[in-house]
Specification:
single chain, about 325 residues, alpha/beta, TIM Barrel, 8-stranded parallel barrel, about 40% helix, about 20% strand
């Protein structure tokens, strides 16, 4: 005789927690990982000092003198960091940012020293004029009745000269951060004409006017003396415009694009990576660093856990590269 049908079974309880039961299991199915190779360490080198000077608003970050910058870079390389991002602070500033593109400017000398000591380290140089301008803006500025107008086209030649001087000193990557229209094309043409066809351009393609830059301006001594940067850095409300900016920089031959800042703009980072599939960097900026440092020093957050969660968020959102002041700490944590 045929067997009677079995009673219907209740639907099985879904148990995603099986894959969270221990660290070994969690690591087997983990979707996103941070590697030391992903990290870029920003460094500040100053022509005005002879010993490291701590940045008060960024605990653990220093301005370094020229005589020690190569050793600092070598320490980063020994820890497994593959690339640094170099910012220069000149002894003198003027209205043409002449220190930015001087053959023996502070960045140019620092690059030569670093490449002599640690030739395999990828040296990225920030290409901007703000640290070198007496008024602190990222281009040639015209002041009229209290209003500041930053001149776009007139600034391009200075940015291009700066990039070429960095490449001549040995920089592997130049990173224009000024947000002038057309600067990537101007820099690419100038590099190619000077014989630096292999020099990479990492463009700050979507750089927003942000309250999170304050501590950096202490470190780089680059705060504008009048006005603000909202006429050239992006409005934080505009996501579609950010995609247009990235598209323009790609058309002008940017090799890597960057979103800056990081945490408040994870949605932009995601959209950029999803739409363009380009090598994409994010800058974990000074204000993000300072607020977590302050909370950790007050015992309100666990610094390591918070930082690593933030790094995972950058990677999950699409970042291939992360510029972060925690790069050395992260490299050490990943070895443990």
């Amino acid at each position: 005789m045929p067997r009677p049908p079995s009673p219907p079974k209740h639907p099985l309880l879904k148990r995603p927690r099986r894959l969270r039961s221990g660290e070994a299991i969690r690591s087997l199915v983990r979707e996103t990982a941070v590697r030391t190779d992903d990290l870029i360490l920003p460094l500040f080198v100053s022509e005005k000092i002879t010993a490291p000077v701590p940045v008060a608003s960024m605990p653990g970050v220093f301005q370094h003198p020229l005589k020690t910058i190569a050793a600092v870079a070598a320490e980063a390389a020994a820890a497994g960091i593959r690339s640094i991002l170099l910012f220069g602070i000149p002894a003198k500033k003027d209205e043409r940012a002449t220190g930015a593109y001087a053959k023996n400017g502070i960045v140019q000398r620092a690059v030569r020293a670093i490449k002599k000591t640690t030739p395999a380290l990828v040296v990225i140089t920030d290409v901007c004029l703000c640290e070198y301008m007496s008024h602190g803006h990222c281009g040639i500025a015209h002041f009229e009745e209290g209003h500041v107008r930053v001149l776009n086209d007139e600034s391009l030649s200075l940015l291009a000269k700066t990039a070429v001087s960095h490449a001549a000193a040995g920089a592997d990557v130049v990173a224009p951060s000024d947000m002038m229209d057309g600067r990537v094309a101007a820099i690419r043409h100038a590099l190619d004409d000077a014989g630096f066809q292999e020099t990479i351009i990492m463009s700050y393609a979507a750089k927003f006017a942000s309250a999170f830059y304050g501590p950096f301006r202490d470190a780089a001594e680059s705060a504008p003396q009048a006005g603000d940067r909202k006429s050239y850095q992006m409005d934080g409300a505009n996501a579609l415009e950010a995609l247009r900016e990235v598209a323009l920089d790609m058309e002008e031959s940017a090799d890597i694009v960057m979103v800056k800042p990081g945490l408040p703009y994870l949605d932009i980072l995601w959209r950029v990576k999803e739409k363009f599939g380009m090598p994409t960097a994010v800058y974990n900026v000074s204000g993000e660093y300072a607020m977590i440092k302050a909370a950790a020093q007050n015992g309100w957050l666990n610094e390591r856990d918070t930082v690593m969660e933030m790094m995972i968020s950058f990677k999950r959102a699409g970042a291939d590269l992360i510029a972060t002041y925690w790069a050395l700490d992260i490299a050490r944590w990943l070895k443990k």
